[in-house]
Amino acid sequence: RPFAVMDSGEPDVFDLYYQVVGPGTMLLSRLAPGDRLNALGPLGNGFPADDPLQRPVFLSEEGGVAPFHFLAKRLKGKKRSRLEATCLYSVSWSGEATILPELQSLF
Predict the structure, then answer these.
(1) Are 58 and 72 in contact (CB under 8 A)?
(2) Distances (CA, A) of 60 to 22, 26, 36, 71, 86
């Protein structure tokens, strides 16, 4: 899918990371921050985050890295310090790397 939940700070509010690839994501791109949507989710498989002592490895390509931002913030919060992890992320072109500075700030 061309979108994923990137962050969540409170119930019923989340940051969505997406790529415009068709009519549905084109409509999303026209929304302004704070606009309301009806959504179904979360769907898919979650990530175990119970053991903050283990060193996680994040492996993704393109937009698939967005959920790792949420997970990294959760793991960092458990340790209350710098997160020790490895993040491997590949992109086809530099425009897909827009999330990297924010993700790197967590490590």
Answers:
(1) yes
(2) 22, 24, 29, 13, 11
Please give the model's pTM, rounded to 2 decimal places: 0.63
pLDDT value at position 82? 67
Residue 4 bridge partners (DSSP) = 17
pLDDT digits (tens, 9 = 90+) for 70-91: 788 877 776 656 677 788 878 7
Per-residue pLDDT of 24-53, as tens digits, reads 889 989 999 888 888 887 777 776 666 656
End-to-end CA distance of the chain, in Å?
26
**How far apart are the C-alpha atoms of 34 and 31, rounded to whole Å?**
8
Task: Report helix, strand and coil shares of the chain as percent, to nearest 5.
Answer: 30, 20, 45
Q: Can you tell me the distance from the alpha carbon of 26 to that of 18, in angstroms, rounded to the nearest whole number? A: 10
- Residue matched to tokens 């903050």: 52
